[in-house]
Amino acid sequence: MNFADRIKEILERGNVQDKNKKPEVHDMISATNNGLKKDSGNGGNNEVIHYSAGSGVNIHPAQAMYERVIEEFSGVSHEKLVFSADAAIVPRDVVLPSPAQTGERAATWSAAFLSEINIIPVTKDKGEVLYLGPTDPLARTGIRDPRDSVSMDQRFYYCQQVNFDTSISYSDLNRFSGLENYPRLVRAAVDNRRNLDLLLIGFNGTHHADVSNPEIYPNREDCGMGWLEKYRTEAHERVISGLSVSSRETITTGTHYSIDGLIQDVWGSAIDERWHYDLVAVCNYSLLHRKHFPLINNLDTSRMNTEILVNEKIIKNPMLGNLPAVTAPFFPEDAVLITSLKNLSLYWQEGSIRKLIKDEPHYDRLAFYESWNEDYIIENYEAGCLIDGIIWK
C-alpha cells in the first residue's frame, strides 16, 4: 500500500462513498473506515475534515496540505515513506547531513550565530578533541633538532541525545489548506526555533539529564553542558568574576569606570598575544543597550546631525573593549565571552539523527519526532576567556 492511500485511510473518520464504484467496493470502503474509527478513537475533533480510503480523485485541499507538510518536514517524497502503525520513519540515507540547517526565519530572533561557528560531524558518541595548535617558535640556527610542529590538547567530547519534537494540529492543517507556502513557512519556523534552542543550550546549559524538566530549567540548563559552563568547569582559571562598572554619577565606584575599560583590561591581560587576532566580544544585546543608551540620550541638540551620524555608526558597528561586539540571543546579561567565533564548535554524531512522523488522532495532531546526539566544544581554552557576573554599580 503506497503512502497516499495510507494517508487517506488514517484521516478518514466518515462514511464517504463514491457513487461510481460497485456495491462491493462501497462495502470494502465502509469496513475500512469503520475499522479506522475503532483504532483511532475518532480523535474527538468533529471540525476536522477527514477523507475516505476509497477517494482517489479530486483530493481535498486539506489532504493535499497534510501530504505536503509531511514531505517538507521529512525531506522525502511521500511515495518513499512507508507508514506502519500510523508512523513513518524517515530513512537515514535521506536525512539532512547537518543539525544546523537554514530556512526562512519567521521568528523575531535570529540564529545566524550558528553560521559563524564550527559545526563538526563525528563518527562516535565519545572521543578525543584533537585541537592542533601552534607550539613555541621553530626557527633556529646551528645543530638541527626538529621539534613537534603542533601541540595536542588532550580533552574529550561526549555527544548526548537531545530531542526537538513538534506537532501540527488537525485544525491548523485545515485552516491553512489554502495557503500555498504554508509547509515551507511552518518548516522554517520550526527550523529557526530548533536552532535557537541550540543557542539556548550553548549559552545556558550546565548538565545533561536523562529526562529534562522545563519547569525547573526553563533555559534548558539540563539539556547539555554549553560553552560557558565548559569554561567554568574545564578552564575555571580563565573565568574572571567579581568585576564591576562604576555608576555614571560616580557615586558608587566599581573596579572599572566603563564597560569598555573593563573588557579591554581583561582580554589584554588574560589572553596571550598570539590569540589576539579575530577576537570578538560575545554578549547579550541588553549589555550593548546599557552602553549605548546614555550616548543617545545625551545628544547635543546644537550638533544634532553630526551626533546622530556618529551614534548610528557606533550602533551599526558595535564595539566592546576595542573588540567587535557580537550579540546572540539567550546570552547571559551579566557576562561577556571573549574568543574567536571559530574557537566555538558544535559536535554532532553522524548516524544519530532520527526522524519519525506519526499521525496521532487521539491528540488531533500530526507529530514530528526528531533527535540527534550533540556536544558543545571550546577548541582552545587559551584563545579566550569568560567574564562572568559583571556588576553595574
UniProtKB/TrEMBL annotation:
Domain of life, per lineage: Bacteria
Pfam families linked to this entry: Phage_cap_P2
InterPro entries in the cross-refs: Phage_P2_GpN (IPR006441)
Identification of the protein by name: Phage capsid protein
